[in-house]
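Hi Y.,

Following your request, here is the sequence exactly as I used it, all 248 residues.
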Amino acid sequence: MIIRLLNIQFARLKRQKILYLFFVVMAVIIISNALQEDSGTANFAAGYYAGGKFPTMCMQSYIDIVGTLFLSFISAVLICGEKASGMFRQPLLNGVSKKQLLIAKTISISTVALICFLFVVIVSIITGFFLWGSHIFDHAQEYLLQMLLLAFPQITMVLFLVLLSLYMSNISSMMCASLIILLVNNLFSQFFGSYISFVDFMYYLYVFSGYNGMELTGKMIVLGIAVNVITGIILVYGISRRTNSMIM
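Below is the corresponding structure, written out as tokens. Let me know if you'd prefer a different format.
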């Protein structure tokens, strides 16, 4: 049953033109950033991200707001949009439980998140290889570790977006709420990072990517994983409670 539901979700995602537009836009951004770094015309330290650190820069650009807002839109389409149009209850009429439906949607959104993130990393490496040759692998150990660690806050983010979608009535309200939350969280992360690091899973999107020169220490890695695992468990519980109380 879950497999059939997943096929339905993926079929709906394939019809979303914004999904393909996202890949085009991200590719243009990556290539543009690479050319700026190569020519030393970037606004930040000229050439700092040229070569082996370029994939790190691209991951930072993705997790900052662009990637998260895109996932928010996907969540809104699969959950808020279907609730508003009445499509959400159709599978339930065919004997599918709300739990099975939400599991399928969560897996679908997680798959999109994985594909988008890998796309950014792979395109950045390929682009960097054309410009700087094998130097793109000079810091491979660093950005591969970042990729692995970023899986934790990204999974937690997907769970958060699913839960938020269950409380939003339509796509517009979901996108507005997501944008406000991201902007406020970004400000708190910059000014109160030492305080919110114990409770805020989003903070580790920045820490694990080395955003703004944040130092990645063993203590921060352990704390970040713990915060994300605990938050993830709480979010799963929240999704379960909300699903059971939803009136379709």
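Confidence is low (pLDDT under 50) at residues 42-46.

Thanks again,
Q.
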